[in-house]
Design a protein that fits this description.
By secondary structure, the chain is of the alpha/beta class. It is built from eleven helices and six strands. Helix 9 links the parallel strand 4 and strand 5.
Length: about 210
């Protein structure tokens, strides 16, 4: 995950972080945009600055990250972070998908999480499910073993944190309510017609591994 993405997760502005670690905003920008390559010393200072910033707010983000590690892993099939943001069109192509709703906001993606929807519903507690949803901001949330897509979209609708994109796999008929909820939330709802979950996973890993090298 990029330095900028971590700063955004912690909710710190460039000026706030720069003041904490004793550098100018332009230095922060140079490292975040790749104009300068950060060494171990700067990365350590950067991370310590974020933690000090979070400490001033009661460690809200750190506590959330710790809680997220306790989410049952059986429901998560695969999860990856992108070093650089990728576009919606790229994701749709890789998962062999179709966007079902006409109105949505296009947001850059910084990762994806593939979920076994049946295990998520049957094995996760309410708190664990909300933690899982909270890990998906600015990410694609890919639900597998879907029957109509209604339950996943209802979960997204009531969740306090929304994914940037939702992908459904395992059905050819999506409930109109799911599409309506996607429209209401402004979230792209994608139906994948890939042959298997493995094809989706391998396609995502292969495609985005190439992107990170350039």
């Amino acid at each position: 995950m990029s330095l900028r993405k971590w700063r955004e997760i912690f909710g710190a502005s460039k000026s706030e972080l720069a003041k904490i670690i004793g550098v100018s905003q332009s230095v922060i920008s140079d490292y975040e945009k790749g104009r300068r390559t950060p060494g171990a010393r700067f990365v350590r200072k950067y991370v310590e600055g974020l933690l000090r910033f979070d400490a001033s707010r009661g460690y809200q983000v750190a506590r959330s990250l710790v809680r997220s590690l306790s989410v049952g892993s059986d429901a998560i099939i695969d999860s990856r972070e992108f070093e650089f943001p990728v576009g919606l069109d790229s994701l749709v192509t890789v998962v062999k998908g179709l966007i079902l709703n006409a109105t949505y906001r296009v947001r850059e993606l910084y990762g994806y999480t593939i979920i076994d929807s049946i295990k998520a519903i049957t094995s996760l507690s309410g708190n664990e499910f909300w933690q899982l949803m909270g890990m998906t901001s600015e990410r694609a949330l890919i639900f597998t073993k879907v029957s109509t897509g209604r339950s996943p979209m209802i979960a997204v609708r009531v969740a306090p944190v929304k994914p940037a994109t939702v992908v459904l796999y395992g059905t050819k008929r999506v409930d109109p309510l799911a599409i309506h909820l996607a429209e209401a939330e402004g979230i792209p709802l994608v139906l994948s017609i890939a042959d298997s979950v493995d094809e989706i996973i391998n396609g995502l890993r292969s495609h985005y591994a190439k992107i990170q090298r350039f």
